[in-house]
Amino acid sequence: xxxxxxxxxxxxxxxxxxxxxxxxxxxxxxxxxxxxxxxxxxxxxxxxxxxxxxxxxxxxxxxxxxxxxxxxxxxxxxxxxxxxxxxxxxxxxxxxxxxxxxxxxxxxxxxxxxxxxxxxxxxxxxxxxxxxxxxxxxxxxxxxxxxxxxxxxxxxxxxxxxxxxxxxxxxxxxxxxxxxxxxxxxxxxxxxxxxxxxxxxxxxxxxxxxxxxxxxxxxxxxxxxxxxxxxxxxxxxxxxxxxxxxxxxxxxxxxxxxxxxxxxxxxxxxx
Amino acid sequence: xxxxxxxxxxxxxxxxxxxxxxxxxxxxxxxxxxxxxxxxxxxxxxxxxxxxxxxxxxxxxxxxxxxxxxxxxxxxxxxxxxxxxxxxxxxxxxxxxxxxxxxxxxxxxxxxxxxxxxxxxxxxxxxxxxxxxxxxxxxxxxxxxxxxxxxxxxxxxxxxxxxxxxxxxxxxxxxxxxxxxxxxxxxxxxxxxxxxxxxxxxxxxxxxxxxxxxxxxxxxxxxxxxxxxxxxxxxxxxxxxxxxxxxxxxxxxxxxxxxxxxxxx
Amino acid sequence: xxxxxxxxxxxxxxxxxxxxxxxxxxxxxxxxxxxxxxxxxxxxxxxxxxxxxxxxxxxxxxxxxxxxxxxxxxxxxxxxxxxxxxxxxxxxxxxxxxxxxxxxxxxxxxxxxxxxxxxxxxxxxxxxxxxxxxxxxxxxxxxxxxxxxxxxxxxxxxxxxxxxxxxxxxxxxxxxxxxxxxxxxxxxxxxxxxxxxxxxxxxxxxxxxxxxxxxxxxxxxxxxxxxxxxxxxxxxxxxxxxxxxxxxxxxxxxxxxxxxxxxxxxxxxxxxxxxxxxxxxxxxxxxxxxxxxxxxxxxxxxxxxxxxxxxxxxxxxxxxxxxxxxxxxxxxxxxxxxxxxx
Lengths: 271, 265, 342
Known about the structure:
heterotrimer, A: alpha/beta, Rossmann fold, six-stranded mixed β-sheet, 24% strand, globular, C: mainly alpha, MetI-like fold
């Protein structure tokens, strides 16, 4: 895919336990370790309850880990001061699953994409306008979309807006939480391509959280399979997807329905 | 022998912004004990088609033209009473989100009982309980009594969807419509649910019309498929034939997308 | 079970703390009133010495914290102080009148629920059709009319013009025999005593005020239930119910069950706010309730009475909310039961 650089994110034996009231404690993340390099996409595959969403939230700083180390560019988050932590928040951004629900329906696209800049006090109005227009164009939308409202856009366009918003403040890492789940088949491919292209241009690291194998194959360099809070498989994407070793990985990847009828399995021209 | 016949069906939606032709003159049929997949992206009109076929009202004012016949009854012209008699007993319907379909505060057994009572097929709660237990076993639930005594929020996604299928199938309808039945579920569970549906075809001789956007579902579980786009039916035929010799460029495009993302390609 | 215990304990602790806060706020609010009660009691022509004497008698010359301590002490012995005009214990004055107000509120809310749910259900079910518009119009009219206008209109139509019901002479006609006090609510007490004439008399006198209150509150109820029912009727749950052949009546019943919580919540809020909120209706119909008494107390600076009323009304409100919390928890299995199957 793209050229891969230094390690940007590192998780080392990270544990996160939840204590819901009146119920037994849940180890959502149970001693996981992995790395994300600049320009690399790590696909985190799992079903509900696997801990993949919690992992994403830990990386975004929405939850605090109980033990283990989370490092950003070599520095442990526990040792960071306020300024460093704020910078990390800016550098690690997120794209959500439901495009319509993550965009404020009462704001115009221009304001939505500019919000991260406004919140961090970056640039004045003219600079922000320029940046927003440039980012929108990067994700394949015309700058004229800035004056529209989310309700006027299609699902694929809304998701691109979400991506534009995520990259407007020049992040280094994107957490993509099921970014293509609610999109149509053909649109899914387009959005995946936008993401890949951005990664090449900007050298971003991606944590792709999903249970859609198709997007993983298309975008990811490495694949991690999670089950009950643990990583059961970790390797290059072709290897994990085509030749999974762990029992659960085999079950999960095997449950992906082949997009051609069994009777035509041996037709080589089905490309 | 066709169970469902759709002839020249057109549907117009009347909204505040004007009229929209969402389905344009489509015709197809579903035979006995056949599983047919209806494929289309958003805006294709597939939602409108199945709601018309199922005889279910939508939150829009719509006019339909053409004929939709299920087992002899015309779904477009049937009155309320006739439709209500058909719903559940001859036509089953399952949606995407099981937790949206099940009632949150009523026991599962009560929900079964209400359906059976509405069709006069039960005379006591005890009887409903027994019928429900049998049906839940049929859809692969191992502890039916426990599930029946509980509530929807105590179930996992897969179990909840099985319960929904159970309630929809308790009166053994001959025709079943499943609207994206596996989209909201985890991958390992999806196959289980599709196997349940296939199992119902085997044991009850049901015909099933599955609406999906997942070609893997169509490829592995359907006998025939229909491809819709922008209100029109682009292609229909045996799955095997369409996958190897699809003629419409749109169908090829759909197949192509999946091919890139799936399997050893 | 363990879950229930913890929940209730926390709730009770909260109630105790809230009660203390309520009592303290009641005291502070009243002691911050600008006018001087001693002067009001003494009258226009009193001399300064007389005012000072009354002030001392009422304990107004004491420092704030001392008065607060005295107030708390009296509360713990069950006393709410003494009415500065009549000399009667405030607690007695409230317990005399509270049952009548509760009678009004309970019956009025019953009417409001029926009216509100009916209007709301019609609006929700016939969304955007003529029934919805008509029902919405009725609600709009009722909502824009102040409750005393509704009350006076009811009186005019049913008493003055049609003569079907008695006029604004309170809870009973002058010649009626009051039943021995059990609950304080005349309708209930006359039933207990077997005094049928009194019972019917009381019922006839209650119809108009409860109708007026019910119509006024029903409009608000209708709006809440309309929204809640609309959402339930447009849901996937309704589609599935219809797809299984359930009748429209069952579908509506299912929707009502789902919409139960917001409707109950609103009902509880209305109940609590009506203790004191029925003042106008009580005044129009000469109903001897605690709401209009409390307004009188406020107008005459009767500070012990005001304090006592705030404490009682606040306590009722607190307990209504706790009851609501518990009831919602019991009714909704999602709150009660955790996930089991996986």
